[in-house]
Amino acid sequence: MNTLFEASSFTGYVYPNETIIPWTLLIVVYPYLTGLVAGAFTISSLYQVFGFQQLRPVAHFALLISLCCMLVVPIPLLLHLGHPERAFNAMITPHTTSAFAAFGYAAAFYVLLLILETWFVFRPQIVQQAQQRSGLLGWYYRILSLGSYDVSDKAMSYDRKWIFALAIIGIPGAHGLHGYVGFVFGSLKSREWWSSDLMPAIFLFSAIISGTALVIVLYVISCKLRKVQVDLPCLTVMAYALWGFMMFTLLLEGVEFASLVYRGREGTEIILEYVKGPLVVPFFILQFGIGSVLPLLLITFMIWRGISGKALVAVVTGSAVLVLLAVLMMRYNVVIGGQEISKTGKGLLAYHPPIIDREGVLAAGMVLVMPFILLLGMVWLFSPWEEETASGHAKAH
Amino acid sequence: MAEDAQLQKHERERRDFLSCLGSAIACGAAAAAASAVAPAVTATAATAATTGGPAPAIPGYDWSKHSWAFGVDATKCIGCLRCVEACKKENDVAPDAHHFRTWVERYVYLEGEEKPRVDSQHDPVNIAASGSESEYRFANRYKDAKVEKAFFVPKLCNHCTHPACVQVCPTGATYKTADGVVLIDHTYCIGCQYCVQACPYGARLFDERKGVTDKCTWCYHRITKGLLPACVEICPVGARVFGDRNDKQSVISQFIQNNRVHVLRPETGNAPNVFYVGTDKDVL
Prior knowledge:
The structure holds two protein chains of two kinds. Chain A has 14 helices and two strands. By secondary structure, chain A is mainly α. Chain A has one domain: Formate dehydrogenase/DMSO reductase fold, CATH 1.20.1630. In chain A, helix 2 packs across helix 5. Chain A is globular, with a radius of gyration of 22 Å. Among the domains of chain B are: 56 residues; 120 residues, Alpha-Beta Plaits (2-Layer Sandwich). In chain B, a hairpin with a 4-residue loop joins strand 7 and strand 8. In chain B, helix 1 runs antiparallel to helix 2. Chains A and B meet through loops of A and strand 3, helix 5 and helix 6 of B.
């Protein structure tokens, strides 16, 4: 029996069925990934829709990041299900009162939108490769071109309209999808730690900062790998975006926590016991201190002193890495934290994730790595770097 | 055995549903040519509308004629936990300290302490006393303390009128029957455990052996044959009562009529159908 589940130890009184934590690491990874999708898409849209020209060097790359993360989003959910082969039951017979019933449709719609926008964005490259390459890859690009080799000015203008429209639809799509994930947690009245009207907004803003941070880190890494200069104006705009959205995120989280404590409803005592005890390291030190306040101070210092060059790259990249850690901790503290506080309001559970398990550390880590493996392949197939597009194609030629 | 019966019931329900669906489609087509068959279609649709699905094919049982409810008289409970063991055996619940369709809580107020000390049969001290995770008893852990007040409270699924678990189920695998029972179709559940999260009473459990969620059914396979739930039948002191609220002379109707009953966590809006007598302000 013990191989089937991992029971948690507890203090105080918890309901007998609570000793096995229902939603574990994979459900921490799932909102983290949807957040990265929404955040990376935001960066892409700031260029495509709102005309932030400074973001041009990363706009297409951010779109690929968003797509790669989104393609992996269903995997943690499927791995978590007791019967993954029945997953489509939620789409065949969606239960309309369920906050989760529309997820399949929302995710499928958004994946299609991302694929379509990516196709339009990379169509000139696909057409060029289809015409120049031979062999298996040539076939691949020819199939992907869908038989349309028209890259005339008129066709490009038509494509741009589509990209603009898809990016506009994608903004509420991406943010709606992630706000929706916040609603899945926030709408549950059974857990005081989750039950908050602010949960969707907190999820959304933390999503934007995590996606922005990921684009920053991957862009800087890609520059190092490609041995090209980091575009400093681009990095600075992303750092400003990170700073601004972080202020919102911290404010919302602060207001939510203050409301919870100030209202002092039944169960608040045990929450405070939890916050002052097991949550000190993961929340106050990792998520709030090292992950949020420190990068905020670093970027503020950068803006104040107007630093540039390598120092700018180091400060912004370092801050972005810390933000990625903070948001992962935020997901952990919300998902696992909510379940470590017993529904009885009289006890606390201590969850220790197993290393090797269907929902263990290794499985969750592998799921987290998957988008980056996909991204490697995607970047190889569709180069998002303007300066390389021409030379890459010249090589193929 | 009970699980098999339930699976067979669900299978029958599914067949009946498909049969009804087929009939409805056939009738619908025929109705275009002859309006005489229209009442038959209306009748099927009406049944589905009032119950949320087709009635189960249980011989001699009409679920529209019953309104089941459960009563707990905490003043009578002696904490013998025979109900827990009976439930486990009757419903093939995993024989360990982490899966329960029903359980008993012990509330002990010690002298000088404002809040009660609460435990249940799954507490490590109680498991150590029984010597096994599949046998249950309350350890005599307060024998040297000065106890001001103590009582036991049996717990189980509340079969709420507005069940949060049914609301959140993404597939509709868990549903409310016309006779007031909340059931799970184990052949349709995807095992997402959203319902486990949504239940404020901790009444739902996840059966890792089958990959589905499980909970108390008030022994639906028994009550539809005129029997009592296993826990009610085995209780030696009558702390658990069960019956049909449509029958004003039933045990449960009399229990509700003759006592000042209350339900657990009324503020959730779930409107439970397990009625309690003799608990205390600290019971959640």
